[in-house]
């Protein structure tokens, strides 16, 4: 171990960190929904921002593909390592893809708040939330069975 490597958090804590990312997306979605409900389902933008109807799904699709590819390549890279380096690489392989999907999800939710247009903004956000749930680590790959 070189001087720059830190011991990664235990797997249970890694899972809690990833769960916190998921709960952040759900919490923000709830806030947006309540704000829109209180505002009579009117967005907070003074005028409808039409270009968001194209950009949000495009960014969402890019985030989805990037998150899945990041998970695949980072997991493959981590599998080749040992010790503390493997633990750190596995943590990155679990955390980074969810963070990428979260970025697209929050963008979709913000566009929903601005325009109050559930399709495509809310749909994009919910798809990315679903991908984040799918990427959530459920079992420790290094656990002894």
Can you characterise this structure?
This protein is mainly α. Helix content is 74%, strand content 0%. The two termini are 27 Å apart. The model has no long low-confidence stretch (mean pLDDT 91).
Describe, in short, the structure shown:
With 145 residues, the chain is an all-alpha fold. The chain has four helices and no strands.
Layout of helices and strands, plus pairs?
Blueprint: H1 11-38, H2 52-79, H3 83-115, H4 118-135
Helix pairs in contact: 1-3, 2-3, 2-4, 3-4
- Overall geometry comes to elongated
Kindly report the average pLDDT value. 91
What portion of residues is helical?
Answer: over 70%
> How many helices does DSSP assign?
4
Strand-residue proportion: under 5%
Compute the number of strand runs. 0
Listing every helix as H and every strand as E from the N terminus to the C terminus, the arrangement reads HHHH
Can you summarize the main beta sheet? none
> What's the gyration radius in Å?
18 Å
What would you call the structural class? Answer: mainly alpha
Q: Poorly predicted ranges (pLDDT <50, ≥5 residues)?
A: none
Integer count of domains? 1
End-to-end gap: 27 Å
């Amino acid at each position: 171990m070189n001087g720059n490597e830190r011991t990664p958090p235990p797997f249970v804590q890694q899972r809690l960190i990833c769960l916190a990312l998921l709960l952040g997306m759900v919490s923000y979605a709830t806030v947006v929904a309540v704000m829109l409900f209180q505002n009579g389902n009117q967005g907070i933008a003074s005028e409808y921002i039409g270009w968001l109807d194209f950009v949000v799904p495009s960014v969402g699709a890019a985030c989805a593909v990037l998150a899945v590819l990041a998970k695949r390549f980072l997991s493959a890279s981590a599998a080749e390592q040992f010790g503390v380096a493997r633990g750190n690489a596995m943590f990155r392989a679990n955390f980074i893809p969810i963070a990428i999907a979260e970025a697209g999800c929050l963008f979709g939710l913000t566009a929903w708040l601005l325009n109050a247009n559930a399709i495509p903004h809310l749909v994009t956000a919910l798809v990315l939330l679903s991908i984040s749930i799918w990427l959530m680590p459920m079992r420790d790959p290094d656990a002894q069975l």
